[in-house]
Recover the amino acids of this structure.
């Protein structure tokens, strides 16, 4: 569903992403990990067509992000690191606006708004202005906009950031429930979240791939004790 071949991104003379190649099969949830500044957000921005690559090819559902950007965007729900909220709008107004951009209208739009609002637990704040909401609720609204229209691919950049423990657990269950139906790339710094949610893990370090394996095989492949935790493997692979 997602194919990335020899992806490189340079910001002037800084190489943020360095020759990444990987693919995500339909229905798979990929945990996308790396230390601060490793290049995760940059990669996700390229996958969603938000930034152009310097080199390499990215295809989503067979469509090239550069040549067929609209086809790609139609298939992706994206939660950027900073959710793109219009804070002067109400939650309802904002979600209605995003749904209309995604081509929904009439009763289908209304039903979809209710569906994602219930899923993200924002039904009771629908008529509040976004800037007056707590950080966690703003994050919920950000995730809700990504889920609108039930796109086949979801790119989630630190989705549980700012959520309270209960909501974090709920969101984890929600993401896990997407497996098989949606293809998900999940970036997070919370490693147990990956262990509980993802089948496969991609770890990048300084823009380069450090690991790309089934989570069950990660410790064995990277020369750790079989029972090494994801945290131990991560620290070893991203040291220095
Ligand atoms: N617009 C930009 N111009 C110049 N350099 C940038 C730009 N955006 C990101 N970078 C640099 O590219 C590198 C990768 O950044 P990126 O935000 O992709 O990392 P990340 O893995 O998402 O980090 P974090 O976990 O801290 O969010 C960093 O060195 C960053 O400073």
């Amino acid at each position: 569903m997602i194919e990335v071949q020899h992806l490189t991104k340079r910001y002037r003379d800084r190489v943020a992403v360095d020759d990444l190649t990987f693919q995500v099969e339909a229905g798979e949830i990929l945990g996308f990990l790396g230390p601060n500044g490793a290049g995760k957000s940059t990669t996700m921005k390229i996958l969603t067509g938000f930034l152009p690559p310097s080199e390499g090819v990215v295809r989503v559902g067979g469509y090239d992000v550069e040549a067929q950007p609209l086809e790609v965007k139609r298939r992706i729900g994206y939660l950027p690191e900073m959710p793109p909220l219009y804070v002067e709008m109400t939650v309802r107004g904002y979600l209605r606006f995003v749904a209309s951009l995604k081509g929904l209208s009439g009763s289908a739009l209304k039903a979809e708004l209710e569906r994602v609002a219930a899923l993200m637990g924002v039904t009771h704040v629908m008529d509040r202005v976004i800037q007056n909401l707590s950080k966690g609720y703003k994050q919920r609204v950000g995730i809700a906009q990504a889920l609108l229209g039930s796109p086949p691919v979801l790119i989630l950049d630190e989705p549980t950031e700012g959520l309270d423990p209960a909501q974090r657990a709920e969101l984890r269950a929600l993401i896990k429930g997407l497996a098989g139906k949606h293809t998900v790339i999940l970036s997070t710094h919370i490693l147990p979240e990956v262990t509980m949610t993802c089948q496969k893990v991609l770890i990048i370090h300084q823009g380069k791939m450090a690991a790309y394996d089934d989570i069950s095989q990660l410790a064995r492949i990277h020369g750790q004790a079989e029972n090494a935790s994801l945290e131990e493997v991560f620290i070893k692979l991203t040291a220095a």
Notes: The chain has one domain: 2-238. The longest strand covers residues 14-24. The domain at 2-238 is CATH 3.40.50.300 (Rossmann fold). Residues 100 and 221 are 47 Å apart (CA to CA).
